What does this fold into?
Amino acid sequence: MKKFLALFLVTLLALASVSAMAEGKLVLYYSHAAEWSDPIIQGFEEKYGVDVELVSLGTGECLSRIQAEAANPQADVVWGGVVESYIPVADLLESYESPEIPNLYPGVYDTENFKWYAFDLEPMVMVYNTSVAEKPTRWDDMLKDEFRGKIATADPVKSSSAFACIMAIMGAYGMEDGGGYDFLAKLIDNLDGIVLSSSSSVYKGTADGEYDIGLTYEEAALRYRSEGASLDIVYPEEGTNIFMSPVTIVKGGPNTDNAKLFVDYVLSAEVQGKLADLFRRSSRTDIELPADFIPTSEITVAPYDINWVVEHTPEFNEFWEDHTL
It folds into this structure.
C-alpha cells in the first residue's frame, strides 16, 4: 500500500509539473511555410493547453528582431532557417538539454552548449530533367559544355537554399584551400549569365525542360517529383551537405518553460514520425523513412566547416557578385 501511495504521489507531482509548464502562452518567431508548420503548432496547443502567439518572418528578420529586443526579449522560440544563421546570435539563445537527445542522430544539435536542435535534416541535391541524354551523377557534370546555359540556380546572396547548395559544393571541393572558389568560378562561367530570381523557379524550370539541371533542396525535389514532374534527384558522388533547420529558445524570454516543452514536442517521435508525409527527413534515429527516400546513412557527406561559412559569408557574397554582375 505504501508503495502504491508513493507511486501515486510521484505521478501526481509529475502531472502537476507538466500542467504548470503548460499554462499560459508561447511567443513563436518562425520562418517555415504555414501550410505544414501551423498544424504542428496547433497540435502542441491542443496537447498542452498553451496559447501560441505566432510571428511569421524570414529567418534573417527573426534573428534581427531578437537582437533588437535583446534588452527585453519578447520571443520564446525561434524556429526555421539553417544553423549557420544562428551562430552570430548564439549569446542570445538559452542552453537546454532536451530529454530527446538520446533519440537524435549525432551532430544534429549543439553538443557543446545545447543552444539549438535540428528539427529536420535537408540534404542539398542536384535535380535533372528526365529527358536529358546524359544523366548527371556529380557536381562537376555541370561544367560540361552540353549543360552551358542550361543550369538553374537562384541567387545565393538572396536565397538561403541556393546559398546552402553552393556551400555544399564548396565543401566538396575545398573551402579553406580555395578549391571551392576555383570550382565556383568555373560553374558561374557555365551558368552563362543565368541566375533565377526564386528558389521555386529552379525545380519548376528544370521539370518543365527550360533547364537541364537544377540546384535545390531535397524536400522540394521529392515533393515535386511525387506530383508527376519530369524530374529526378542526384546525391552527388563528391558529397553534399545535410543542412539542419533549427529550433532554439530565446534567452530571457517570457515563457521559457513552455519554450522547452515546445522544443521537446517538435523533436518527439509523435511529430518526427509525420515528417516524411511532408517530404522531410527526421533528425531522429528511430524513424523509418519511406521507400522514396534514400537512407540518410547512404548519402555521401562532404567536409563542411560551419564556422568557416559564417566567417567568410561576406567574402563569398563579394566573390559571387564580382563574377556574376
